[in-house]
TrEMBL record:
Domain of life: Bacteria
Coiled-coil residue windows: 49-90
Sequence intervals crossing the membrane: 12-31
PANTHER family: UPF0749 PROTEIN RV1825, UPF0749 PROTEIN YLXX
Entry protein name: Uncharacterized protein YlxW (UPF0749 family)
Family that this chain belongs to: Belongs to the UPF0749 family.
Keywords: Coiled coil, Membrane, Transmembrane, Transmembrane helix
Organism: Mesobacillus foraminis
Cited Pfam families: DUF881 (PF05949)
Amino acid sequence: MSLKKKVKTNRVVLSLVCIVLGFMIAFSYRINQNERSKGMITDRQWEQNISLRNQLIEQEETNRALQKELNEKQEMVRNYEAELAKEAEIYFNLAEDAEKYRMFLGKVKVKGNGVKVTLSDGEYNPNEENINNYLVHEHHVFKVINELYISGATAVAINGQRLTHNSYIICDGPVITVDGYQHPAPFEITAIGDPEVLASALNITGGVKDQLVNDEIIFSLQEQDGIVMDPIVGKK
């Protein structure tokens, strides 16, 4: 091969090498630019993701704090409700007790079921020297009244005269005096309460009824509905 042709061939090869090298440099530059560009977008997205994640974490922490506060408030409300319910029950019981005391003191009109006990003098016995042995006395009346109150009677009256917490009964021969008013026999003692309970208490073996019968007192007991007792006027 001649020198001239060899030089020409080298120039062609060199030109091809330069072209390929330039293409490779341009391609490499573009790849680097794309990678850099891609790297910048990824960084922004990452920063946005981090920011959103931090905001989400802060919001979750805030929600947890609010939920804890809500739970505490709800517990306080439940405690208040329990206290109010307890107070309401106390006030209800006080009101109920006050009404019972008014009934016991004779301050209000009362109506209800109950019993009527009639105590009559025993039959005349000519062989009995002491007439008082078969008459109804105040202690006989007291036994009946006390048993009625013990058995839950809320109001008691003798011959229609209502008793109070400070009533007194005095025996005066064939009559008894209740709070200054005289009543002859027979003595009707009415009481408002559970009829079955009151009757059972009076009829118990060896109880009030048996004791009075042993004293020659005529004892009768009736359960009654709709007993009415008016309030006592002028009593303190």
